[in-house]
Amino acid sequence: MFKSNQIHLFLALALALVIGFGAVGTVQAFEYIEDSDLPAGETVDDDLFIAGDIITIDGTVNGDLFAFGQTVTINGTVNGSLVTTGQTIILNGEVKGSVYGGASAMTIGESAVIHRNLYYGGFSLEIVEGASVARDMAFGGYQAFLNGEIGRNLYAGAGALEINGTVGGDVRVDIGSPQDGPMPFEYFMPAGAPKAVQPGLRISEDAEISGKIAYTSTSDQAGSIDAEPAGGIVFSTPQPDDIQVEATPEFGDDFGQVNYGLQIGRWLLARARELVTLLALGALILWQLPELFKKVIDKATSEPLPSAGWGLVTVVGGYVGAAILGGLVLALGIFFGVLTLGGLGRSIFGVGFSSIGLAMAVFVLLVTYGSKLVLAFWSGQWLLDKISPQAGESKAWSLVLGVVIYVFLRAIPILGWLIGVLVTLVGMGAMWLVFQDWRKPALVEAEA
Question: Are residues 358 and 429 in the same domain?
Fold first, then answer.
């Protein structure tokens, strides 16, 4: 089974994907190609959206590329970032920005160059010798084979990880144990997907790691680490109370000082991450969906009790509904798999679970962050209106002040948890009520 910290990494990758949409430059134009190809020699001077079963990009995109298909192959040049999902993704070209990928299997070919970061969530990832990622890489999935070059740090939550290439910084990984045995993925994976390898961390003597290797596992795997990282090797177990740290001059090595200082640092880091994440998503929403966001805020403030009630129904219904849909996909996949000797069953598993996974990623994002932004922005705007009406007209300052207040209150023991639950329910309920208001005219027109 995947450990909880691996699931958290999956959610972090989903969040990174959404932030990636907002981190790119302002879209001057957005082009959609119905064909599944961009031939060599052709250039798109805008952001490009392309979808189809088999997608091949041999040309140049002078913007961001959004490619969604069964098999996606990028041989050309993307002068922005790449956002792609599918069963199989093959990157042989050059991406000037970051790559955000989700697939059953992704291969970064020997001629591939990624000038910023690589974020990938899926079953299998292979970086071939000769390929390079200029900055950081984050991976959440079952297995990864890294034979190319990563300029800075590698972060991973995986069942199996093999490193034969170069890492310019640290390797930080939550890894499965060889004693776990490989999971029976073969039946559930689409035809042609890589086979599951034995769990565990394996680093060859040819690997070059400029930082340290810090891995968390239920078993010590030093015997399979043949490389000598410049920063040494740190092993820890997944028990939350067992904190293993190296004593440093900054913290000292007296009894209690190291762990106490580390805990304070981690607490401050967690609050800073929450603050930055909420501000980034809030800015994205104010930029892309200002009118819709205002409607949700108005609904939450004008109907707080109905919003809280519907929020409880929405949150519970979302998770229960996902479990029911997952069971139906599993049952249908097994049924048709038996009838068609696995062919149709694999397709149902691939499409069904991919769709549920994408929907749940969006749902969890709304529950975890979107709902908080609704009341955070309103509280910041209300307070600025009282203190300085002129400053209250600034949406940016309302967002910043509201998020800071929420993060501060959320950090208070017990009270912060209660505030978080209340804000989540009201925010989610307001989104649901706005959605219902949007549907009413369409339903009336349909009945007429």
Answer: yes
User: Is residue 253 in a domain?
Assistant: no
User: Both 106 and 195 in a single domain?
Assistant: yes
Distance CA 377, CA 284 (A): 13
What type of residue is 224?
Answer: S
Residue 423: domain span: 265-447
φ/ψ (deg, to 5) at 239: -65, 125
pTM: 0.53
Establish if 20 belongs to a structural domain.
Answer: yes
Residue written as token pair 């549907």: 439
Q: Are residues 233 and 291 in the same domain?
A: no
The predicted-structure confidence for 167-224, as pLDDT tens digits, reads as follows 999 999 988 888 776 554 454 455 567 888 888 999 999 999 999 999 998 889 999 9
Structure tokens that stand for 76 in this block: 């050309």
Same domain, 305 and 207: no
The tens digit of pLDDT for each residue in 305-363 reads 999 999 999 999 988 888 888 788 777 766 766 665 445 656 666 666 667 777 787 88
Same domain, residue pair 172 and 106? yes
Are residues 233 and 299 located together in one domain of the fold? no
Q: In this structure, are 154 and 232 located in the same domain?
A: yes
